Amino acid sequence: MKYAIYQMEIIAGNPEANRQNVKQWIENVVQEEQPDTVLLPEMWNTGYALGELANTADRDGEPTASFLSSLAKTHNINIVGGSIGNQKADKFYNTSLVFDRNGELVYQYDKIHLVPMLNEHQYLTGGQKKVHTFVLDHVKMGLIICYDLRFPELSRQLALDGAQVMHIVAEWPAARKDHWKALQLARAIENQFFVVSSNAVGTYNGTEYAGKSMIIDPWGTQLKTGSAKNTGTITTTLDLSIVSKIRRDVPVFASRVPEMYE
Question: pTM (2 decimals)?
Fold first, then answer.
C-alpha cells in the first residue's frame, strides 16, 4: 500500500483556505505519486484557534465529510482525514474522519485525551467512545490523535484487535519534538505494526510545530521522515507482509501474561 502524507502549514481560523490547500495537494499528489492512501494532520480545518471554534468548526462533520468523500471517490483513493474542529450539539470535539475509495465514511473518532498544557478542556470535549480498528483495502488499521500518543493503552488495544498500521495525526509542538520521535518508535516496536504520522509545521500563537512526520516499520526502522520546518509530501510503499513475520520472529503477543498486568 502506497502512502502519501501531507505535512501541512495550517492557517488557523481559516477553514476555506485550508480546504483549498488540501484539495490542491490531493490533486497534485494523485497525479505525481498515485498513492493508495493519503494522510492529513490534526485540526487541519481550523488549526488551534480554539477560541474561534464557534465560527470556524464544522457542524456534525460538515462541510468536511462531503468534501473529503468527494475527493476520495473522484481520485479513487483512501483518505485518512486527519482531524477537524467539529461541533456536535452544543459541544466541540477534535474529530477524525476516514473515507475509502468509494467515498464511504468507514471510521469516525473523537480525540479522547485533551491536552492540559493547551487548556483544551476549556474549549473541547473528550471523546466518549473507545478506539477501534477499521479496514482500508483489506488492511486492518487504527488511528489516534496527537496527545493520545502518550497513552500506550490505546495503541495496544488496536494492536490486540489486529491493526497492522497505526495512524497518528498531530499538531505536535517543537518544544517536545524528542518525545514525538521516541513515542512513535516505542509504539511501532512494542506493537509490531507500521506507524504512519502526519504533523503540522509553522507557528501559531507562540507555538512552533515540530513537523517530522514519519513512516516507521514494525521493527522500528524510520523509513521516511519529513522536514522539521517545511511543508511537503512524504511517500513510501508499505510491505505489509513483514508485520506477520516480525510477530512470528519476536512473539510478543503470544508471550503476554494479561492476568499479571492488573
Answer: 0.97
